[in-house]
Amino acid sequence: MEDHHIKIDLLKLLDDNRLTATQGTSDKKNLLFVVGKSSAVEKLEEFASCYADRINLEIVTVENLSLVASKESLFNAILLGFSEDDNCSSDLSLIPTYTSLLVGGGMLIAKTIVGIEDMLVKRMKLCGFLNVAMSKSIPGIVTGNMPTYKVGTSDKVTLNPETKENVISAWKLDDNNSETISEDDLLEADDLKRPDTSSLRVCATTKKAKACKDCTCGLADELEANRLKDTPKPDTANAKSSCGSCYLGDAFRCASCPYLGMPAFRPGEKVQLSGNLLQDDL
């Protein structure tokens, strides 16, 4: 396996991250190599056979990654982009898949193109990886750990009875040292007056004592009647026409005639104007 087909000493990288077992022990880690090309599988299998006493290594291509996921196997670490001319770590859409294949606290080690590590770091953080960092000694290497818990994990929470009593007692009032205020002392004389029922009438739409545009509940008529009741009637006893044609009807009346809209009447006849005709429209 020429130069291990990687630019770094892969075994040293595994040792530094405590992913290899001490020779003679059975505490071997389960590792998954994800490669982009099937041609790299044979070469990595050669590497795995050389260190079979220290690691349990499984190799899979990106296109067969779903087969590994279906086995519900969990790995201590997943390594990406370590085969020759491999850029599978650049496929950021696969990062969520790797999270489901790692044990709690499992590690993702990705070798990517130098200069674009920031993109991989951000994606790993968004997918829930912790301690995500770029290697200071090996350019292009990004590592991150899954949380020590899995999604859906639950644990029983026990409360200390003594602590619970202390919390409850903190909210108790000592009657001997606290002053109380009578509710009646907070009320003023105006607060005790019964409100006028007419002032409580509001429109269901405007929530105010103001009728809406298309009022059908009668509030608009009631408000208009109250307004006319409180409006003094104009004195038209001495009203005189400036043109002398007001009594002939609208066809002979000027634009500002107060009799506009009223039927014709006989000259000298007393005409009573309604209360709203002499009111400014504005």
From TrEMBL:
<dbReference type="GO" id="GO:0046872">
    <property type="term" value="F:metal ion binding"/>
</dbReference>
<dbReference type="Pfam" id="PF05093">
    <property type="entry name" value="CIAPIN1"/>
</dbReference>
<comment type="similarity">
    <text>Belongs to the anamorsin family.</text>
</comment>
<feature type="binding site">
    <location>
        <position position="254"/>
    </location>
    <ligand>
        <name>[4Fe-4S] cluster</name>
    </ligand>
</feature>
<feature type="short sequence motif" description="Cx2C motif 1">
    <location>
        <begin position="243"/>
        <end position="246"/>
    </location>
</feature>
<comment type="subunit">
    <text>Monomer.</text>
</comment>
<protein>
    <recommendedName>
        <fullName>Anamorsin homolog</fullName>
    </recommendedName>
</protein>
<keyword id="KW-0001">2Fe-2S</keyword>
<feature type="region of interest" description="Fe-S binding site B">
    <location>
        <begin position="243"/>
        <end position="257"/>
    </location>
</feature>
<feature type="binding site">
    <location>
        <position position="203"/>
    </location>
    <ligand>
        <name>[2Fe-2S] cluster</name>
    </ligand>
</feature>
<keyword id="KW-0496">Mitochondrion</keyword>
<dbReference type="InterPro" id="IPR007785">
    <property type="entry name" value="Anamorsin"/>
</dbReference>
<feature type="binding site">
    <location>
        <position position="212"/>
    </location>
    <ligand>
        <name>[2Fe-2S] cluster</name>
    </ligand>
</feature>
<dbReference type="GO" id="GO:0005758">
    <property type="term" value="C:mitochondrial intermembrane space"/>
</dbReference>
<dbReference type="GO" id="GO:0051539">
    <property type="term" value="F:4 iron, 4 sulfur cluster binding"/>
</dbReference>
<dbReference type="GO" id="GO:0009055">
    <property type="term" value="F:electron transfer activity"/>
</dbReference>
<feature type="short sequence motif" description="Cx2C motif 2">
    <location>
        <begin position="254"/>
        <end position="257"/>
    </location>
</feature>
<dbReference type="GO" id="GO:0051537">
    <property type="term" value="F:2 iron, 2 sulfur cluster binding"/>
</dbReference>
<keyword id="KW-0411">Iron-sulfur</keyword>
<comment type="function">
    <text>Component of the cytosolic iron-sulfur (Fe-S) protein assembly (CIA) machinery. Required for the maturation of extramitochondrial Fe-S proteins. Part of an electron transfer chain functioning in an early step of cytosolic Fe-S biogenesis, facilitating the de novo assembly of a [4Fe-4S] cluster on the cytosolic Fe-S scaffold complex. Electrons are transferred from NADPH via a FAD- and FMN-containing diflavin oxidoreductase.</text>
</comment>
<feature type="domain" description="Anamorsin C-terminal">
    <location>
        <begin position="237"/>
        <end position="273"/>
    </location>
</feature>
<feature type="binding site">
    <location>
        <position position="257"/>
    </location>
    <ligand>
        <name>[4Fe-4S] cluster</name>
    </ligand>
</feature>
<feature type="binding site">
    <location>
        <position position="243"/>
    </location>
    <ligand>
        <name>[4Fe-4S] cluster</name>
    </ligand>
</feature>
<feature type="binding site">
    <location>
        <position position="215"/>
    </location>
    <ligand>
        <name>[2Fe-2S] cluster</name>
    </ligand>
</feature>
<keyword id="KW-0963">Cytoplasm</keyword>
<dbReference type="GO" id="GO:0016226">
    <property type="term" value="P:iron-sulfur cluster assembly"/>
</dbReference>
<feature type="binding site">
    <location>
        <position position="217"/>
    </location>
    <ligand>
        <name>[2Fe-2S] cluster</name>
    </ligand>
</feature>
<dbReference type="InterPro" id="IPR029063">
    <property type="entry name" value="SAM-dependent_MTases_sf"/>
</dbReference>
<dbReference type="InterPro" id="IPR046408">
    <property type="entry name" value="CIAPIN1"/>
</dbReference>
<keyword id="KW-0479">Metal-binding</keyword>
<keyword id="KW-0004">4Fe-4S</keyword>
<feature type="binding site">
    <location>
        <position position="246"/>
    </location>
    <ligand>
        <name>[4Fe-4S] cluster</name>
    </ligand>
</feature>
<keyword id="KW-0408">Iron</keyword>
